[in-house]
Amino acid sequence: MLSKALLRLGASAARHPWRVIAAWLVAATLAVLAAVAFGGRNADSMTAPGLDSQRAAHLIERAGTGQEGMTAQVVVTPLDGAATFFDHDGARTALTRLQTEVRRLPHVLGTSDPAGALDAGGDTAVRGGLVSADGRIAVVRVQYPDQSRLSAEDLDALVDLGDRLRAELPLRIEMGGSLFYAFSDPDGGASELIGLLAAAAILFLAFGSLVAAALPIGMAVFGLTVGVATMTVLARVTDVPTFAPVLGSMVGLGVGIDYALFVLARHREYLARGLDPREAAGRAVATAGRPVVFAGGTVVVSILGLAVANVPFMTVGGLAVSIVVLTMVLASVTLLPAFLGAAGPRLARPGRIGRALRTRRPGRLARRRDPAADAAHAAGWRRWIGHVSRHPVPYAVGAAGLLLTATLPVLGLRVGLPDDGSLPPSRTERRAYDLVTEGFGPGTNGPLVIAADPAGDPGVLDRLVGAVAADPGIASVAPTHVDRATGIATLVVFPTTSPQDKATADTIARLRTDVLPTAIGHGPARAHVGGAAASLSDVGQRTSQRLPVLVAAVLAMSFLLLMLVFRSVLVPLKAVLLNLLSIGAAYGIMVAVFQWGWGGALIGLEATVPIVSFIPMFLFAILFGLSMDYEVFLLSRVREEYLRTGDNGTAIVEGVSGTARIITSAALIMVAVFLSFAVTEDPSTKMFGLGLATAIFIDATVVRMVLVPATMTLLGRTNWWLPKWLDRMLPRGPVGTERHRR
């Protein structure tokens, strides 16, 4: 049923290519116009229902202190290295002017007043955490309303003011805070271009034709435009996290070009057999399109499984990325065959440059350029797969041992959120972070906000302040603010350690489980620990607790789908276990690079950082779905050969060797795209890029080209064993349930 539908769809698109291309042009234009007219702003809401930090946020909101909104900090020091704010009137006057100018910015609710505190006395300024003890560094904390009322224009206004005042005042001015985190332009623009260029080069090497290389790129650009624009419209009705466009671009480019490559390779096979280009396009979509639809659906379902974490920003982020993947699947079975039909018979032969290269370098290169010589080119892969099949035990044990060894660092996995100290020194956020650390200690970069409701107990606040200040993990406590209407008190406290330090998470846990309950007692009063550092710590714990649930759900779903498709119990079981191995190895390499610093300089990592709390869960969902691409594509060919020959050994050698070049080319494209994101400035984007690239590389080499043929050889004919009672219960799947036309 699915094959026939895809055949009709692909053939129709190839017969009427310009209508389909025009329809996609209209869709892309409308999507972009809708994004411009109705699109919303991406927003990071790093909270989840039921968390202690969320309860603190609710109390703060009730108190109306404004501390539930966005913040920025302007950190200044006199340009004269010998001057201090205590004894330099010019520096103090400049500080006063800076505060006044910042307060005039749109949407600013207020600022701290280090200049006023200095006028009241140096000790007052130091005790308030506004001026460093040596008088060299002052911090102007800027309070904004909540993120829904702000935009990137507010960040631009603050940055522009800083640029102007740097030229007018005798101060070094640096800036940071949550306003920068929320509205700084995400990394990705240059990375997308680099990834596209790398993909184009690999496609040209694979096909020897500029036309053949351009079609997957063009399809991916169309799909990415529609998908990301739709994501922007989605941001109008819900908070789409700021990382979603970058992650969507990363995954969308990878899967889009991969899917196009699978279909294009089949199309060229059929052209080499003498089929008409339009018929070849329809047949290509009918055969390669089935694994594409199945694999794309698996990616989408895996990513949507993030909802089990019960963390709203992860659920919405997964939905946004899924939109891009679905768009790429739709483009692969409609827009791509239209491109193939428009290209006609030109795809059956190398382009002018490819012919020139073949003329200059005959032999192996020539065979690679000629689709009709694919069988000859596959001889090398056939020899390798045959060699592995003749020695399955050592290869299976050796490859599995290698991946298990690479997985071992996962035992030391520590989740958190890299702070501004992990950014390169070229960023003003990093320079502000360093100045604050130098003047006030690292914990000042990640204050905690304790919200307390005394519930009529007049002594609870004094006990609370005393207990918190006495904790060894707390450096200082700012003056308590009590809302007269509600009686709710807020305490801003500064840990002794940086936001990303494990000791800070330990301090938060100790405050909640020991310090606050002891100070409050058994009365009706209550207190909760909030602030950005506490929220991120809570989200990290929530995702760590829910990760096993996601893993179990995705594994069960993948097992059932593969069993339905390939009518086997052992093939899906093997696939699930091997995918776990490759993902585990990717996790281990991430820990070694980001937490231990091994090779971090190669990707521009400034310092060791914890793994971002939500990335392991996101990576698992995405990688398990992506690995199904290669699994389905490879096993579909093996299944075809098994149905044709009835011999398991021949099916393994012919099926794996027949897909090896496409899988390795597709993997190279994905690795190139993902690695282009691993060299951006943001550590979170680096983690996504390196984690995805590593897992895909391992999956396409060690797993697909070694472990799959070795384990399938060891299993023999039992690969395709399915109990008769289960066979009768299962509906007929879309792939591999009948003898394919060849």
TrEMBL record:
Sections of the chain in a coiled coil: none
Record-annotated Membrane transport protein MMPL domain positions: 46-394, 489-722
Keywords: Cell membrane, Membrane, Transmembrane, Transmembrane helix
Parts of the chain that traverse the membrane: 21-40, 193-212, 243-265, 292-313, 319-343, 393-417, 547-566, 578-598, 610-630, 651-675, 687-707
One Pfam family named in its UniProt record: MMPL
Keyword Nucleotide-binding assigned: no
UniProt key word Ubl conjugation: no
InterPro entries to which the protein is assigned, alphabetical: MMPL_dom (IPR004869), Mycobact_MmpL (IPR050545)
Organism: Kitasatospora misakiensis
Membrane topology, from the record: Multi-pass membrane protein
Localization terms from the record: Cell membrane
Principal location: membrane
The name this protein goes by in its record: MMPL family transporter
